[in-house]
């Protein structure tokens, strides 16, 4: 606040500055601005200064104020003519004033001055202002010594208004332009420290009159001007040296020849930064000048092409230097492209750089013959330029277009050459754009897109689209900048209307045809044009070597269309269409057709049997074809040519293999791929994936079960992997085709799929076969979505088993449709026995034996031989043998070592085969009975559910049993994950029965982990009731009791039933896992039934918690009462103790007491301590000690209440005098023993002493004063 008031006070006393107008001092009518009559502009009116009483100090002030140095001489001189006004006179300066009107003078125009005599002075500076650069163009510099030495520059701030005045002063006309950017380097500007800023008034007649010291204003660039009197010249005509050629001068924006110029040619060369004159020829038509420097503008790039790159300048053969990109624009780029003959500017930009440059801040009008002739800041030996960015130009002349990877120049993938690299173009051209491209390539006016026939290539994509306007001059006008498309894009390809293809109607031989669009013509076989050289060209163009036979065939009967052109080829010709055209056709042109047989050969096939990578072999060199040009039409042609059926959809990727052909091109006349045109992969594109084909002839079905013949899960080999066939695909017609293909008869049926769920990536979901076709001609469709896999059993199925008691030992029997056959021992080898044991999952083979008795079963009408079997299973060894009806030959018996161990787990009754659990897929109840019979000779409890869940990732057995199997080990089994539950089997032989009371009540049965009650007995008769009583260890069933004794009313849900028929003799066989909901459990009462003892139910017991609550409350109340009494007793004892101290122990000389209350002597904590110690002390425990030499505790007969004798002494104090003597105030008293008279007060086991001091002030007693008297004991 104080500062604010001071500010107001200061403001109140400040006087405003009144400016009446600007004054300025000038020297008039002198040879330079620092000499002449003294004039003053006052209120924009010129007046002079009189010389009355003039002194030298006045001259010093004048010279100083106009930046003219110091005073040199002064004189009073006659007026230069009639004058209107003398502003001031009789001036008296001290010498330190800034200007004359700061000195003492009578006033403005008030002194009676003489107008015929005025003061004229001369200052020390002789000002000369010129342009540093060229005549009438350059930076404004000044000299203070008349031009002998230039001492400084004017700054470019506020310079524009003064430019005209300078150009007029220099006799250079008017200002054409003031240059803002750095120009010419201005070495002197950097080296010289003097600067002047320009601040001109309208009255100024000389630029120096505008000069002012810059003070703190920055001055970074000199004032520069180009006056209209400046002649700008350039040399034109030689791009290899821009410092040589016709001399042209700029006039009104155009360049005209210089005629009859008197200017020194050296000045021209210097002005153009071309050194000095070497040769100058001048006539009436103009001038030709050659300067000493050799300068060339070039575009530098990695491809060493001339129409794009970084802009460089090469001087006198030295390494080129870049042009810096400060202020770089399209006009400068236009000049570069023009001087290099590269057309218009396509794009220009700047690129980061960190090097020395040769030019910077380039400014071109666009009409210059060379970039070197543009105004710019330039490098010289004394002023190198540092580039942070370099100019970069792409001219239209560097933009090219082509169609590549086709069979000719008029068809293929569209590519644009940009910055020296051929780049692919994104798909999306219109037909008109395609036509423009074709026109640029001289391939007709029309074109169509076709990306399927041509390789996609591997180069980069162009960052431009191709969109051509009607007035486009070349392909560069069609390029429009775009963002990169998302996803995978295809490259554009075009076929122009003039595209032509040569072909042979045979494989490397036949008539020579020419296809153009949909039209087919044939090459003339005239002897005038068709010869060995032309035939060699055709064979080489078709990759078929050279011509081994050249001939013609008559066209008389064929009347084919003959191509309307003939060619004369040389040995270097690579294509028929590159050969020389014969303008005049021979007379026999249409009579014959050119025909040739080439030396080479071509084959096209697949690297697998009817599937795999496409393989093309030309003259012994084999390789693949790019997949992006391969079409389904070619696949169909290939499968048909190889007799491999139809084309199927592939599911796998092709394996990597060399690709030597980019594309294969066919025409409508071709019937075989060997007649096609092949485009070689000469640039070895690595990203090209090989073409891949799957024909239906490669697909083969099979049963995946090795132990059975013509039965099992159906699989199809598809691309060398076995895929499961969906059950829905096994229609009747397909079943018939599959069975016939596998020699399994002509009929069949679907059966249940066996084993874990198929886990293949693909499933065969569709098989489409016709009745008259083979399986290889069926249409087969794999899909990724899973399905229910199918299984099949053909009419000629066969299955083997070992019979005779064990699963893996016994006679070998063969089961087939309606038959059971034995196998003869003869010819059966150890190897075959081992294969059978392996197929039956019975472990290693042990031995082969034969029966000694006559066989009752007919022998199989086939034999087995292990020879010549690639993938052996026992059925692959089967051979047809001659019929032999004899039954006398011995039957084969085999013993294997791997008899499976079938058990039930103890806790959950899970079925275990070799300690591995079984999944419930394919499980049937008959198999449960088989397990129980095998294990304990009983049947299984019917309809038992499987509840245990499998562990994910763990493998379990899947089991499938046939009607002829009698042991679980004979059944087929397979390992795999389980998607269902694990099999639990409960055998009736282990079931137990019980009742809720002895020989009666609710029936209970235990066959799982717990006792379970039973559903109502709906099918029981008297026999069944009796048998159940006997099973319980009781006498027969009591019907009367059954009707009378039922006392149960509960209804529950149950899972176990007893369902008996008249045929059941064992009550256990009636057990089944059958549930019932909301039923009363079944009951039975036998003759031995003992009713339960009745339980007398009295009134409910009284809860005890209210009584406990009352007792607790009483205890708490009692404790509070005791505590209260105790506190009162303690306070009373303290008061009595204090009275004793005052009465008998403390001396008034030692202690003065102002207050009569002593309750605070003992703190609350001490009270609680005493309470904690418990009990009342006897009078003998109370000892009061003062500062007398000796104090002892004494019994007092007047203390009646023991509680009043609370101790004020610590228990740690030492005992007082012994015996019954009492020492008080230094005297000893004899006291009678009171113990006999106070038996009700318990004596303390020890006597303790406490020192208590009572003060009447807060002053602390000094240690010397507080010392205890002799004989006293210091307490706690």
From TrEMBL:
The chain crosses the membrane at residues 1104-1125. It is a single-pass membrane protein. Gene3D superfamilies: SRCR-like domain (3.10.250.10). It comes from Zoarces viviparus (Viviparous eelpout). The keyword Cell inner membrane does not apply. The keyword rRNA processing does not apply. It holds the Pfam family SRCR. Residues 1215-1276 are annotated as: Disordered. Disulfide bonds join 93-103, 155-219, 200-210, 364-374, 468-478, 569-579, 961-971, 1060-1070. It is found in: Membrane. Its main location: membrane. Keywords: Disulfide bond, Glycoprotein, Membrane, Repeat, Signal, Transmembrane, Transmembrane helix. Residues 1-21 form the signal peptide. This is SRCR domain-containing protein. GO terms for cellular component: membrane. Residues 25-137, 129-228, 297-396, 401-509, 501-611, 610-696, 701-809, 800-843, 880-988, 985-1087 form the SRCR domain.
């Amino acid at each position: 606040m104080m500062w604010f008031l001071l500010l107001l006070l200061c403001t109140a006393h400040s006087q405003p500055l009144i400016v009446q107008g600007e004054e300025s001092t000038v020297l008039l009518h002198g040879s330079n601005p620092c000499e002449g009559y003294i004039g003053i502009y006052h209120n924009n009116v010129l007046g002079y200064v009189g010389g009355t009483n003039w002194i030298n100090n006045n001259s010093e002030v004048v010279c100083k104020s106009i930046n003219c140095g110091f005073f040199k001489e002064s004189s009073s001189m006659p007026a230069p003519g009639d004058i209107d006004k003398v502003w001031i006179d009789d001036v008296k300066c001290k010498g330190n004033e800034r200007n004359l009107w700061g000195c003492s003078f009578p006033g403005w125009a008030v002194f009676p001055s003489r107008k015929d005599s005025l003061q004229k002075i001369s200052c020390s500076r002789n000002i000369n202002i010129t342009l540093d650069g060229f005549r009438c163009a350059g930076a404004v510099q000044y000299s203070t010594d008349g031009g002998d030495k230039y001492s400084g520059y004017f700054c470019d701030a506020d310079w524009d208004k003064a430019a005209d005045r300078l150009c007029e002063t220099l006799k250079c006309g008017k200002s054409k332009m003031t240059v803002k950017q750095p120009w010419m380097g201005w070495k002197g500007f950097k080296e010289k420290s003097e600067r002047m800023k320009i601040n001109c008034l309208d009255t100024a007649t000389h630029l120096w009159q505008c000069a002012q010291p810059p003070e703190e204003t920055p001055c970074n660039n000199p004032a520069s001007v180009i006056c209209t009197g400046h002649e700008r010249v350039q040399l034109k005509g030689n791009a290899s040296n821009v410092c040589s050629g016709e001399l042209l001068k700029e006039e009104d924006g155009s360049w005209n020849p210089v005629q009859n110029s008197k200017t020194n040619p050296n000045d021209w060369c210097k002005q153009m930064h071309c050194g000095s004159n070497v040769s100058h020829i001048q006539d009436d038509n103009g001038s030709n000048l050659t300067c000493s420097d050799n300068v060339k503008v070039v575009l530098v790039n990695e491809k060493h092409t001339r129409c794009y790159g970084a802009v460089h300048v090469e001087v006198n053969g030295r390494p080129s230097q870049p042009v810096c990109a400060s202020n770089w624009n399209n006009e400068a780029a236009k000049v570069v492209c023009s001087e290099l003959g590269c057309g218009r500017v396509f794009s220009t930009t700047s690129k980061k750089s960190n090097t020395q440059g040769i030019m910077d801040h380039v400014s071109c009008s666009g009409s210059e013959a060379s970039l070197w002739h543009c105004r710019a800041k330039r490098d010289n030996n004394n002023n190198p330029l540092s580039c942070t960015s370099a100019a970069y130009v792409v001219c239209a002349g560097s933009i090219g277009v082509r169609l590549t990877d086709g069979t000719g120049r008029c068809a293929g993938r569209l590519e644009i050459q940009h910055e020296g690299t051929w780049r692919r173009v994104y798909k999306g051209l219109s037909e008109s754009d395609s036509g423009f491209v074709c026109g640029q390539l001289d391939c007709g006016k029309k074109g169509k897109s076709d990306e399927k026939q041509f390789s996609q290539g591997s180069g980069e994509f162009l960052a431009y689209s191709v969109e051509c306007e009607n007035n486009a001059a070349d392909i560069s006008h069609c390029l429009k900048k775009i963002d990169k498309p998302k996803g995978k894009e295809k490259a554009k390809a075009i076929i122009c209307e003039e595209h032509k293809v040569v072909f042979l109607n045979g494989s490397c031989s036949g008539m020579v045809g020419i296809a153009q669009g949909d039209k087919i013509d044939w090459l003339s076989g005239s002897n005038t044009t068709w010869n060995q050289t032309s035939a060699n060209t055709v064979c080489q163009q078709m990759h078929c070597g050279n011509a081994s036979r050249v001939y013609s065939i008559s066209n008389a009967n064929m009347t084919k269309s003959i191509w309307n052109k003939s060619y004369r080829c040389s040995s270097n010709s690579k294509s028929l269409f590159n050969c020389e055209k014969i303008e005049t056709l021979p007379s026999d042109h249409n009579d014959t057709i050119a025909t040739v047989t080439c030396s080479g050969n071509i084959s096209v096939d697949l690297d697998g049997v009817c599937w795999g990578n496409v393989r093309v072999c030309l003259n012994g060199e084999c390789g693949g074809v790019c997949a992006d040009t391969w079409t389904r039409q070619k696949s169909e042609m290939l499968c048909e040519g190889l007799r491999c059926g139809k084309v199927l959809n592939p599911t796998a990727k092709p394996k990597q293999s060399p690709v030597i052909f980019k594309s294969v091109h066919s025409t409508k006349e071709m019937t075989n791929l060997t007649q096609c045109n092949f485009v070689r992969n000469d640039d070895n594109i690595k990203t090209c994936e090989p073409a891949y084909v799957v024909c239906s002839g490669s697909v083969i079905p099979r049963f995946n079960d090795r132990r059975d013949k013509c039965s099992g899960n159906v699989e199809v080999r598809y691309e060398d992997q076995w895929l499961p066939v969906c059950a829905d695909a096994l229609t009747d017609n397909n079943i018939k085709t599959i069975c016939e293909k596998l020699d399994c008869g002509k009929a069949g049926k679907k059966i249940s799929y066996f084993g874990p769920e198929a886990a293949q990536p693909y499933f065969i979901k569709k098989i489409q076969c016709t009745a008259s076709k083979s399986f290889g001609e069926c249409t087969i469709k794999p899909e990724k979505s899973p399905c229910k896999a199918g299984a099949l059993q053909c009419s000629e199925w066969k299955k083997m088993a070992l019979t005779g008691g064990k699963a893996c030992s016994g006679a070998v029997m063969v089961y087939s449709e309606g038959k059971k056959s034995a196998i003869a021992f003869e010819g059966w080898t150890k190897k075959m026995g081992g294969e059978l044991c392996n197929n039956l999952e019975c472990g290693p083979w042990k031995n082969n034996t034969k029966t000694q008795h006559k066989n009752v079963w007919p022998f199989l009408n086939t034999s087995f031989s292990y020879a010549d079997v690639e993938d052996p299973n026992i059925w692959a060894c089967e051979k047809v043998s001659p019929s032999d009806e004899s039954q006398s030959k011995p039957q084969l018996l085999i013993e294997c070592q791997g008899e499976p161990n079938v058990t039930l787990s103890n806790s959950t009754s899970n079925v275990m085969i070799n300690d591995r659990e079984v999944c419930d897929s394919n499980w049937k109840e008959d198999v449960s009975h088989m397990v129980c019979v095998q294990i304990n000779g009983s049947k299984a409890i019917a309809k038992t559910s499987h509840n245990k869940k499998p562990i994910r990732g763990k493998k379990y057995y899947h089991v499938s049993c046939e009607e002829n199997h009698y042991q679980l080990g004979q059944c087929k089994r397979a390992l795999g994950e389980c998607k269902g539950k694990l099999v639990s089997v409960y055998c009736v032989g282990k079931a137990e029965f019980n009742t809720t009371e002895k020989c009666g009540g609710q029936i209970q049965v235990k066959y799982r982990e717990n006792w379970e009650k039973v559903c109502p007995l709906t099918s029981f008769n008297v026999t069944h009731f009796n048998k159940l009583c006997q099973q319980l260890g009781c006498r027969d069933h009591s019907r009367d009791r059954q009707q009378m004794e039922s006392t149960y009313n509960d209804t529950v849900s149950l899972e176990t039933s007893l369902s008996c028929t008249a045929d059941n003799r064992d009550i256990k066989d009636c057990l089944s896992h059958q549930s019932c909901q909301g039923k009363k459990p079944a009951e039975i009462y036998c003759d031995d039934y003992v009713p339960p003892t009745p339980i007398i139910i009295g009134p409910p017991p009284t809860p005890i918690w209210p009584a406990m609550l009352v007792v607790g409350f009483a205890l708490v109340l009692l404790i509070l009462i005791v505590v209260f009494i105790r506190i009162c007793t303690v306070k009373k004892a303290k008061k009595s103790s204090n009275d004793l101290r005052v009465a008998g122990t403390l001396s008034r000389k030692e202690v003065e007491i102002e207050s009569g209350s002593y309750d605070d002597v003992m703190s609350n904590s001490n009270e609680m301590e005493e309470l904690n110690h418990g009990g009342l002390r006897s009078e003998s425990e109370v000892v009061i000690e003062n500062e007398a030499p000796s104090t002892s505790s004494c019994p007092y007969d007047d203390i009646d209440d023991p509680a009043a004798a609370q101790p004020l002494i610590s228990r740690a104090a030492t005992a007082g005098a012994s015996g019954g003597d009492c020492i008080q105030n230094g005297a000893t008293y004899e006291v009678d023993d009171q113990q006999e008279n106070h038996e009700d007060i318990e004596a303390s086991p020890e006597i303790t002493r406490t020192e208590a001091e009572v003060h009447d002030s807060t002053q602390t007693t000094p240690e010397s004063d507080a010392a205890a008297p002799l004989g006293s004991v210091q307490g706690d």
